[in-house]
Amino acid sequence: xxxxxxxxxxxxxxxxxxxxxxxxxxxxxxxxxxxxxxxxxxxxxxxxxxxxxxxxxxxxxxxxxxxxxxxxxxxxxxxxxxxxxxxxxxxxxxxxxxxxxxxxxxxxxxxxxxxxxxxxxxxxxxxxxxxxxxxxxxxxx
Length: 141
Fold this sequence. Notes:
By secondary structure, the protein is an alpha/beta fold. It is 33% helix and 21% strand. It has helices at 3-12, 32-40, 53-61, 119-126, 130-140; strands at 17-20, 43-48, 65-69, 86-88, 99-104, 109-114. α2 (32-40) packs across α3 and α4 packs across α5.
């Protein structure tokens, strides 16, 4: 199935999508569009081995959660195929650089490093991204 068709199907079924990625996710991308595309396809989180610095920030700006495998782990080492169903519980009072537990529908679970690195990034995310944050801020004035 094409990516577009799969994304449309998951969105129509109300199923959020995550991306499993390797090292330096977002490197060589066209910057902000590399985050807008996944947002428009219903991606809610990216679990990567590492992120290109600006791309990680752009994901947050689009309301996408950047999660990083712990050192020495990746999708292959954890036996992830992408066919699993993932549950990621994001605490309401999450702090920058907090570890989270990702649960799978087959009973497995693993820890990830949540890559909200600053309080400002958490503020943007809590508003659904930087655009929603700025609109709310403008309306309030």
